[in-house]
């Protein structure tokens, strides 16, 4: 893109950082190049990509530091780190991250699910069951997924519900 003279914008850099999800050095290079080369300040989406990239690379404390670097840590950043804790079975950090997540969004069903799965990954099935019990007591439920398809000006779901957009 650079050789063709294409100027990268915020969206292009989000896509580029996402594409680097298994290429740590390249992802760090492009993130660090945002301001000096492209004149762009990182936004929440860029930080989220970097937390995911660092988390996949098992650099969990670095990912946590990245969250602290962002101007206002949001649920999406904590969720990316919690997913990395589940992936690597890091219960201690996962508990701390879940607490930060629940302070921002106490009804975060995906947060409970990720924390529960973190315990399961670490072989702590009793604690997993306890988290599920707490989730149920607090009446936090995960919404089932739903696919929407737009054809012309109508939206369709698998349940054959149609409405005009």
What is the fold's blueprint, element by element?
Blueprint: H1 10-19, H2 24-38, H3 44-56, H4 60-69, H5 75-88, H6 91-104, H7 109-121, H8 125-137, E1 149-151, E2 154-156, E3 162-164
Antiparallel strand pairs: 1-2, 2-3
Helix pairs in contact: 1-2, 1-3, 2-3, 3-4, 3-5, 4-5, 5-6, 5-7, 6-7, 7-8
Task: Describe the protein in words.
This protein is mainly alpha-helical and 165 residues long. It has one domain: Alpha Horseshoe (Serine Threonine Protein Phosphatase 5, Tetratricopeptide repeat). 62% of the residues lie in helices and 5% in strands. It contains eight helices and three strands, in the order ααααααααβββ. Strands 1-2-3 form a three-stranded antiparallel β-sheet, with no helix packed on it. Strand 1 (149-151) and strand 2 form a beta hairpin. Helix 2 (24-38) packs antiparallel against helix 3 and helix 5 packs parallel to helix 7 (109-121).
């Amino acid at each position: 893109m650079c050789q063709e003279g294409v100027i990268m914008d915020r969206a292009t850099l989000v896509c580029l950082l996402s594409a680097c999800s298994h290429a740590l050095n390249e992802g760090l290079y492009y993130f660090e190049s945002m301001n000096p080369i492209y004149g762009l300040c990182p936004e929440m989406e860029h930080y989220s990509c970097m937390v995911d990239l660092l988390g996949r690379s098992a650099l969990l404390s670095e990912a946590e530091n990245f969250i602290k670097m962002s101007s206002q840590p949001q649920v999406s950043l904590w969720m990316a780190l919690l997913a990395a804790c589940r992936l690597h079975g890091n219960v201690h950090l996962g508990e701390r991250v879940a607490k930060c997540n629940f302070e921002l969004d106490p009804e975060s069903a995906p947060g409970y699910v990720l924390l529960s799965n973190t315990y399961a990954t670490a072989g702590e099935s009793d604690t997993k069951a306890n988290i599920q019990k707490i989730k149920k007591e607090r009446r936090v439920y995960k919404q089932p997924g739903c696919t929407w398809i737009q054809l012309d000006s109508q939206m369709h779901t698998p349940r054959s519900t149609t409405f005009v957009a």
